[in-house]
Design brief:
- The chain is α+β, with helices and mostly antiparallel strands.
- It has one domain: Cyclic Phosphodiesterase, Chain: A (Alpha-Beta Complex), CATH 3.90.1140.
- The chain is built from four helices and nine strands.
- Strands 2-6-5-4-7 form a five-stranded antiparallel sheet. A four-stranded antiparallel sheet has the order 3-1-8-9, with helices on one face.
- A hairpin with a 7-residue loop joins strand 4 and strand 5.
- It is globular, with a radius of gyration of 17 Å.
């Protein structure tokens, strides 16, 4: 099973994020129903390890907090964008939550993540294949991206309460990944 932990976003937040997603044939958008804030990608695990992870994550403690999504950006950089995202304002409890998840996963036999944590909400990915044909009816990709980075989407801002996180199982399909909640963990 392919697993990750995340914060599920309220419907109104997902709807607002879907409204700022840039539309272009070269951008594969995250479906509105699948938009979330990843905490920790775990990867492929077997059933035995999955049961250990489910149990271990029940020991993560955190206080409820408000999270603030604001602005837009990309990885790795605007001149070579690959992943388009909405930003997350730093919050110490979010960091504590991430660290608690890391610790419990480590205790369950999962290696610590080699990447530093950069919280964001993935809105889309630039297609790398050259099979996408130029559409004369749409704006050039660089114009669409400039608007995403500097236009109205860049001023996106929403705040919402967080009192839980989830462990998800992700299945890859030709149209993208489909995520299913395996377990939900409440704030203490």
């Amino acid at each position: 099973m392919r697993l990750f932990t995340a914060i599920a976003l309220p419907d109104f937040v997902r709807s607002n994020l879907a409204a700022i997603q840039p539309s272009h044939p070269e951008i594969r958008l995250t479906p509105e129903s699948q938009i979330h804030l990843t905490l920790r990608y775990i990867g492929e695990t077997d059933k035995v390890r999955t049961r250990r992870i489910i149990q271990s994550l029940s020991h993560v403690t955190f206080r409820p907090f408000d999270i603030e999504l604001m602005g837009t950006g990309c990885f790795p950089n605007p001149s070579e964008p690959s992943v388009l995202w909405a930003g997350v304002r730093y919050h110490p409890i979010l960091r504590e939550l991430y660290d608690g998840i890391q610790e419990q996963l480590y205790l369950a036999g999962i290696s610590l993540s080699p990447r530093s944590y950069h919280p964001h909400v993935t809105l889309g990915r630039i297609r790398k294949d050259k099979k996408v044909k130029e559409n004369v009816d749409c704006s050039p990709l660089d114009v669409v991206l400039d608007n995403f980075f500097n236009g109205d989407p860049s001023r996106f801002h929403v705040t919402f309460p967080v009192d839980r996180f989830r462990l998800y199982h992700s299945r890859l399909h030709s149209g993208g990944a489909i995520h299913h909640c395996l377990q939900e963990y409440m704030a203490s």
